[in-house]
Write a structure and sequence with these properties.
The structure is a homodimer. Chain A is of the alpha/beta class. Chain A is built from 11 helices and 16 strands. Chain A has 2 domains: 257 residues, 4-Layer Sandwich (Metallo-beta-lactamase, Chain A); 38 residues, no CATH class. Chain A has a 7-stranded mixed beta sheet. Chain A has a 7-stranded mixed beta sheet with strand order 7-8-9-12-13-14-15, covered by helices on one side. The longest helix of chain A is centred in the first third of the chain and has 12 residues. Chain A is globular and about 65 Å long. At the A-B interface, helix 1, helix 3 and helix 4 of A face helix 1, helix 3 and helix 4 of B.
């Protein structure tokens, strides 16, 4: 029942010797979601010991090179590795031009289907759903069409308290009704059932300038990835380039009531990201720096009976 | 008076956790030539502590992804770094389509000129020349249009033996004539001049199946980079995919009378490249494995007086 984020690249536009462009893997139970795909994503994924074959869904925030230049290499490699099953990409519609070009020039060995699900919204909208989780896209405020993504486990079905079965002589039908939250004559659902665990959530916000609706859209997440390209010293530059400072990111986390904040997308002018962390921590204590290969795990919390 | 090859990526089509796609830097004195530009080339260059700004010329062997997927990232980065001076690319003509697409989709911040010099030849042809060196392109035998490149220092001007100036009472005009190899009345050029150093050379052959003319075209090079995707065990596969085995590469080096051979472009099926080296060394003793970040230096050899 894993729910964890792996950060594979912490650079902004200019990579450095140790910072790679944006790429992240969110693992939700047995499913892997690749979020952004900067240059070297496929190598970073291999270095992390993760199987490329396990990725069925890629979510792209926007079409700046540092978020997509790893796509061609990854798509080629999947083809050469013999992938057959479709690959789903969620991204601004204009990615279709880039994918068409890829298929035309480099698509010879690509035998699997690349399915682009264009994202287009002005407020949060559900773009993906499976039995246990759902994903919402929401607009960010950048120099070009950009989306953030919110991953949420669904509310699990209520479990029955074992002792209650004998005590109330419950039939299978009655148990099923109680688990759905229905009360029966003998006893109320609330009395003999419980939520087995608390659903977990993660939101990805990169690249973006701060704006009022954002903390509302990611309210209460367990983990918030928020870009922090600059420190406050470069607030003007952040504003001009539609990026965030560490303080902007921390304020978003605080207003959203997030449990933890992961900072990334650091400008190459910062040899060390320590000043970014310091600035964020002053506002939001549970701030952490992304790092190539770092894992931010959200452990399953059992709900109290 | 440097002349050295740095290998930045030793993978073939499928990169691994430790092997990056093809990219190499040849340094000839103060000039840097990037040879092929696989994904992550810009990061590998930075890791090696080499300044991207120093690269004015890029030579591309062919348009398979593992040799060019690093171009978009590198070209973008040069733009963001404020490059103004033109960048020269030597490649099969079809790269123009890829460069046009790049400029259209990602060219906003690219203020420098990208000059494509299309390579097209069926035998060695000079494609570049400066005061001290020249580069020749020659066709390789691969699944698609592919070229190898030969880098050669020019024959240096003869130097005058200092003692001869007084001994023969030589005027500046006479010295200049002797240095050009002309004999004068007083003395012959051969008697009082010498070649200050032996010109150095390097050839790059990737990707290619072996063929008869190749050793002739790279005859006598100090350093030969030759792909060795497979060992002899996979000779059939090498033939089918128009690649070379280690033995093919070694035979080429031996027939060419090369001084040293660097093997690269290893299939991902080889966890260790040791069997490739072993196979090559049995045929050509001066065989070496390329490695990410390895430098193969060709020291300047003074000619004997």
């Amino acid at each position: 029942m894993k729910f964890s984020l792996m950060t594979l690249g912490t650079a902004s536009a200019l990579p450095t010797a140790s910072r790679y462009p944006s790429a992240h893997i969110l693992t939700v139970r047995e499913r892997l979601f690749l979020i952004d795909c900067g240059e070297s994503a496929q190598m970073q994924i291999r270095k992390a010991g993760v199987s490329l074959a396990k990725i069925d869904n890629i979510l792209i925030s926007h079409l700046h090179g540092d978020h997509i230049f790893g796509l061609f290499g990854l798509l080629s490699t999947l083809g050469m590795a013999g992938r057959q099953s479709p690959l789903y990409i969620y991204a601004p519609e204009k990615l279709s031009e880039i994918l068409d070009f890829f298929k035309k020039e480099f698509g010879e060995g690509v035998k699997y289907e690349i399915v682009l699900n264009p994202v287009k919204c002005t407020a949060p909208v559900k773009i993906y759903e499976n039995r246990v989780m759902e994903i919402f896209a929401f607009p960010l405020r950048h120099r070009e069409e950009t989306y953030g993504y919110l991953f949420r486990e669904k509310q699990p079905k209520r479990n029955i308290v074992k002792e209650a079965i004998g005590k109330y002589d419950l039939s299978l039908h009655e148990i099923a009704r109680l688990k759905e939250g229905e009360d029966i004559d003998k006893v109320s659902s609330a009395e003999v059932t419980y939520i087995p665990y608390i659903p977990r959530s993660f939101a990805y916000c990169s690249d973006t300038a701060p704006f009022k609706a954002l903390p509302e859209w990611v309210a209460g997440v367990d983990l918030l990835y928020h870009e922090a390209t600059f420190t406050g010293e470069y607030a003007e530059l952040a504003k001009k380039t539609f990026h965030s400072t560490a303080a902007d990111a921390a304020r978003c986390a605080a207003l959203a009531g997030a449990k933890r904040l992961v900072l990334g997308h650091f400008s190459s002018r910062f040899k060390s990201a320590a000043p970014i962390l310091k600035e964020a921590k002053a506002i939001f204590k549970e701030s952490y720096l992304a790092k190539e290969g770092a894992i931010f795990d959200i452990p399953l919390q059992k709900a109290k009976l």
